[in-house]
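Why show two proteins at once? Because comparison is the fastest way to build intuition. When a single record is shown, students tend to memorize it. When two are placed side by side, the eye starts asking what differs. So, the first record is below.
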Amino acid sequence: MNNRVVLERFPAGGPRGSWPAEEFARARRMEGQEAEVVMDLASDAFLVIVRETRVTDMAEVAAAA
């Protein structure tokens, strides 16, 4: 199952040529997070998210240790 954690929200109506959500996501990726930008149409906002996956296979748990 994929869970999403919203790191930050940015209004879609920002100044022309401004990409604050993309810049924020890039900074998080530089820190090692797998951040991405998605559009929330209901709130007309860009969301910077990270996806969290749950490990259900015990072999994967053992391999990660």
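Second record. Ask yourself what differs from the first in the token line.
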Amino acid sequence: MTVLNRMAVALAADSAVTFSTFANGHLQRTYASGANKIFQLSTTAPIGVMLFNNAALQDVPWELIVKSFRTSLGSDVKNSVQEYADALSEFVRANMDLFPPAHREKHFKQLAARSFFYLLKKAQSEKPVLANAGDASVQQAAIADFLASEIATNAAKPLSPTFVDADVAKAKADHAGWLAQEIATYLAGAPQLQHLAAVIPTQGFAELAIESLYRFYEVNFNSDYTGIVVAGFGEKDYFPAYSELRYYGFLLDRLIVEHVESKAINHDVEAVIEAFAKKSMVDTFLSGFAPEVWSTVNGLFRVHVNQLVSGLNLAPATAATVPTLIATAEGEFAKAWSAQVWETHYAPLNSVISGLPPNEMAELAETLVMLESLKEKVTQRTQSVGGPVDVAVITKSEGLVWIKRKHYFSPELNPRYFVRQSQ
């Protein structure tokens, strides 16, 4: 949760995080409720970072990554928040100690295997003839048709700017042989799939899996990403800003990191409040109605107008124009009532937030996180929100100041820790 006005940035985060591992062809997630999700990104500059979703980047904890970057940054300062975000990305990309080549290759192989399993499941879904043993020639034709279709799908999907064609070609040349052998071994060893061992061209399927991994990496990472929010002030910033990024991980030597959005306070934008990951309660707080109300109201408007019209005895020429008229009326209705909500709820709220002092900004951010946690606890019973809430405020002059912060140890028993921190 971030709350920004011209004075400060308030960051608040719960302690629930996800750890993801890949085993036996399946993505496995475990949850923890004592994680740190807010960190000081520099020892000297007013800049911080907050994470959500996954607490590790391909098995390396983000807490370790951020603190290592902070040490590496030293007293260096950047002119803008985006420059800090870019520097963090470059630190991760170039760090061969945290992410050595063998580690990157191990995770590439796991992702390539995941891509194969995804394609195999898709082939069996689209071609039911592959589900059980049968006519080999018919099944070979089905596989050939599936491969041709997927190759065409890949050709129509442009590569992300992260990659170039040479990356895909090299990955195929270096790893398709290994993956083909793994596919053959897997098919031969799975009783329910042994009939496919003789009809699936393992080399072609392996090359398709690697190509698809690069073209559709979001599918193969299966939402296994870390959201990173870098927030605060650059050296030349008078007003705060934040930059949101999404880290998926490495495909060999390429780091997949996407810039989602950036927002900044300026002379025209006086306040910003933004939630990340779970945000339904925040959207309700900001808009004055729950997100599902939008579709419900507009849907009921459409239903009742159609019922009204159906009861009228309209001439054929007039009836032909009714769908267009209803669509136009629905759009105008939605625009009118949402504008009314904006004027009566959001605009005054935004004005209030713009004038909040830093301590009240922190209280607001914490309260919204706790509301989201409470909603999840009593409605969905998920493990993705919960635990103690950490709160920090960043100002241009004071830097990052902790309002609430948990420790995994008792401060009273560890005075030397605080002595070391002060040195």
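One difference worth noting in the second protein: Residues 316-354 form the longest helix (39 residues).
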